[in-house]
Specification:
The protein has eight helices and five strands, in the order H-E-E-E-E-H-H-H-H-E-H-H-H. It has about 230 residues and is α+β, with helices and mostly antiparallel strands.
């Protein structure tokens, strides 16, 4: 059986990973961004309207004001619309979702490995601290990539413009001056990444302390008192 100290460290690691999974699950179910663009009737130089997209991972809501008609609103499913609008936004959005799913998977593995180590003493394999390091590191790296790729898809690509032109009222419009605001779904990825790194730090602290204790117990004979060596 593992020591009480080891059990506490690994149970704390499992708790941190569980909290991160909860944050990730909530993040994937709520709003990620609001994208606003100035809108004008196609071929006109007058941009007196706006198109606003409230974007979640799987669905969204488009609100047009004088773009070109007043008060046009529409809800949509993200993937079916992206399939019709362009390849790059679809690939980037699919990559974000795949990485989020992998984050959940590796966090779940980290929880299982931590719980296993809290009740047993496995050999130095991937079922030991190395497994926690690997799973939590992959989770942290993937979540960091999600932050970057999602912003690129929202700001750099023409995803928002294509969605605004193809959803609901399909009258020709011109769009300009796109602005984006990230919401809680996006920002929750940051504490998820921090918790993954804290899990690594916690297990490293225990592993390093245990390693030092083992080294102290295996001091070479030259550190022993001379009387013992002479005997």
């Amino acid at each position: 059986m593992p020591s009480t100290e080891k059990s506490l460290y690994y149970m704390s690691s499992a708790l941190l990973s569980s909290i991160s999974v909860g944050l990730m699950g909530y993040a994937m179910s709520t709003q990620w961004a609001t994208i606003t663009m100035e809108c004008g009737r196609g071929g006109s130089d007058l941009f007196n309207g706006t198109a606003t997209i409230n974007l979640e991972l799987f669905s969204g809501h488009l609100n047009r004001i004088s773009c070109p008609s007043f008060g046009a609103t529409a809800s949509f499913q993200v993937f079916p619309e992206l399939i019709e609008t362009g390849v790059a936004p679809l690939i980037l959005h699919a990559a974000v979702l795949c990485m989020l799913v992998l984050c959940l998977l590796f966090s779940a593995l980290s929880i299982l490995i931590s719980l296993y180590n809290s009740v047993s003493n496995p050999y130095e394999t991937y079922m030991g601290p190395v497994g926690v390091y690997v799973c939590s590191s992959i989770s942290a790296c993937l979540s960091f990539l999600v932050l970057i790729i999602f912003v690129i898809n929202v700001i750099v690509t023409n995803m928002a413009e294509n969605l605004a032109q193809n959803i609901g009222d399909t009258s020709p419009v011109d769009l300009r001056n796109k602005s984006s605001e990230m919401h809680i779904g996006y920002y929750l990825i940051i504490p998820y990444m921090v918790l993954s790194l804290l899990t690594i730090t916690l297990i490293y602290m225990y592993d390093h302390a245990a390693y030092r204790r083992r080294k102290e117990q295996q001091r070479p004979t030259e550190d022993a008192p001379k009387e013992i060596m002479m005997y």
